Structure prediction request, 205 residues.
Amino acid sequence: MSVILSDELALIGHTPEGARYGGAPRVAIAAGEVGELLLQQRLVPDGRFLLVRDPTPTGHPVPDQVLGQLVHRRSPMRLGTLLVDRANCYPAKMNHLVSTGLVRAEARGSVFARHRYVPEPNLRNAVLLRLQNMLTGAAAPDPRTVALAGIVHGAALGTELIPFADHRAALAHFGEREPLGRAVQEVLARSNTAAVAATVIVTSS
Prediction:
């Protein structure tokens, strides 16, 4: 089975040792699922909503699950709402990646994180190299890598993954123009606002 955009984001959203980066890999992986459907022309954006352009399954179980969810809705779904819904499915997605061999689960003793998900190193490095080559101009932009860059920027993963400031500036150039990257930023901004509000309520009560 081919490696899709959400798989690539899962690979680079975890350290080589399997820890999750401090950005937002859960939302990034969810955006990768949507991005795959956009790349395969199953969905089209309509403002903040997603419309089904072609209900034909892609043949990959993960994006097809998302596509089926949208096909059976009576009305279009907000992109931000879908990203939050799919981000909450993170454990099931990682279990799927374990079953395919893209990541390896290692048990942890922490109450907050039961597993580390160690990415397959060669695939992880290949994804990062493709991204770096586009950012440095060594390779021409292509739709898949542009979508990858936009989501990486939107999920604030650039600081962890891109070591040089000029390359991060190139990442921001793509991220600020890529709709999925902007959508991820909006989801995270709302999440952070809600977290701050909850903290204020707790500390003031």
